[in-house]
Backbone:
């Protein structure tokens, strides 16, 4: 079974803090993704990575950066957290090729910025 | 631009009955994929079913089936014999104009009544 883990289920930070959200997958997938989920808006793509050290902006990259130094790990960084970044953050991974583009998700990190 | 529309923010269904969750999509791509995910209160997104745009038959996975009407650009999820554990948020999504991206609808919250 594919397993995607995220470092924290719940996180509370203060405005201006630097925040790291970690995601690890154990299935050797090339592609990894970070989404945020807000009520009424569904999931929106922040960044994705299709290979080590490669990254592409998604639909809402402002205020975020990412790091992928190893294939299994994809980190989301909030350089200076703001209250409007309070949200649920979901990481996903997907292999390249195959019949479908199914993405496998982690359990999510609920971030609150005070 | 790609877009997914889920017009039902919430639905009720009686246990053991069938329920249909609506999804319409907008895409200019000739080849695309449609996905349904389930998100229980625990937060993890669980992949349910996939339909490719060139698949001639509607996809089925156990109690889940996808009513794919290509000309109408709809991809409704049908859950047969609802169970209490089916209570969750359900998201429809489309593989976007890049093969890496999934575009999500705003979701439908399903509550199964005993």
Residues:
């Amino acid at each position: 079974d594919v397993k995607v883990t995220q470092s924290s289920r719940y996180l509370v930070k203060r405005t201006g803090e630097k925040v790291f959200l970690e995601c690890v997958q154990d299935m050797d997938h090339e592609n990894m993704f970070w989404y945020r989920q807000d009520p009424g808006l569904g999931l929106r793509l922040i960044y994705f990575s299709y290979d080590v050290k490669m990254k592409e902006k998604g639909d809402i990259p402002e205020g975020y950066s990412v790091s992928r130094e190893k294939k299994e790990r994809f980190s989301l960084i909030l350089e200076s957290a703001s209250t409007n970044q309070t949200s649920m953050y979901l990481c996903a991974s997907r292999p390249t090729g195959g019949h479908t583009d199914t993405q496998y998700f982690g359990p999510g990190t609920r971030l609150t910025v005070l | 631009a790609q877009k997914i529309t889920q017009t039902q923010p919430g639905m009720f269904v009686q246990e053991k009955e069938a329920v249909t969750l609506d999804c319409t999509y907008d895409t200019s791509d000739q080849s695309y994929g449609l996905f349904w995910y389930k998100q229980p209160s625990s937060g993890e997104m669980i992949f349910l079913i996939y339909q490719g745009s060139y698949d001639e038959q509607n996809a089925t996975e156990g109690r889940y089936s996808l009513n794919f009407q290509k000309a109408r650009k709809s991809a409704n999820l049908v859950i047969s014999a609802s169970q209490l554990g089916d209570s969750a948020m359900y998201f429809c999504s489309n593989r976007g104009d890049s093969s890496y991206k999934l575009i999500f609808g705003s979701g439908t919250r399903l509550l199964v009544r005993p």
Summary: The two ends of chain A are 37 Å apart (CA to CA). The first strand of chain A starts at residue 4 and ends at 6. The CA atoms of residues 36 and 89 of chain A lie 4 Å apart.
